[in-house]
Amino acid sequence: MGYSQTTVILFLVLAFAMAATPAFSVVGWEERNFPNPRLCLREITKTHGCLAELSRSLVRKNLNFRRECCEVYQGMSNKCHTWFFNQRKYTPAYGNQVKDYCAQKYGITLAPSYRVYHPMKEPSLQ
């Protein structure tokens, strides 16, 4: 094989590898980046009433949490925190309101909430 043929074949192999890498990286994306929802709910419900306080505060549009619940939210793993505050009514904006409330009232710092891109889900029009 000549030098130019080897170069073309090498170029094609590299081009295919670069094109296939993003497609292969999506396989198993959710398993790597999303926690087990049962474990996350177990984290947030380990102190009785905290999930109810989150829902009640959201519906009433008036944040009111006990110190213990802010400590539970602080103790959530980063993956669970991000997963939880990207579920339907629990938006990243609401997660940041909870973060600010806990910091102002009790001095408990929480991780910021971020919007998560789900490659397997259609974006909602809300």
From TrEMBL:
A Pfam family this chain is assigned to: Prolamin_like
Segments crossing the lipid bilayer: none
GO cellular component, one term: extracellular region
Keywords: Signal
Keyword RNA-binding: no
Signal sequence residues: 1-25
GO biological process, one term: regulation of double fertilization forming a zygote and endosperm
Keyword 4Fe-4S set for record: no
InterPro entries registered for this protein in UniProt: Prolamin-like
Coiled-coil annotated residue ranges, if any: none
Domain Prolamin-like: 40-102
PANTHER family named in the record: ECA1 GAMETOGENESIS FAMILY PROTEIN-RELATED (PTHR31181:SF64), EGG CELL-SECRETED PROTEIN 1.4 (PTHR31181)
Protein name: Prolamin-like domain-containing protein
Organism the protein comes from: Corchorus olitorius
Phylogenetic classification of the source organism: Eukaryota, Viridiplantae, Streptophyta, Embryophyta, Tracheophyta
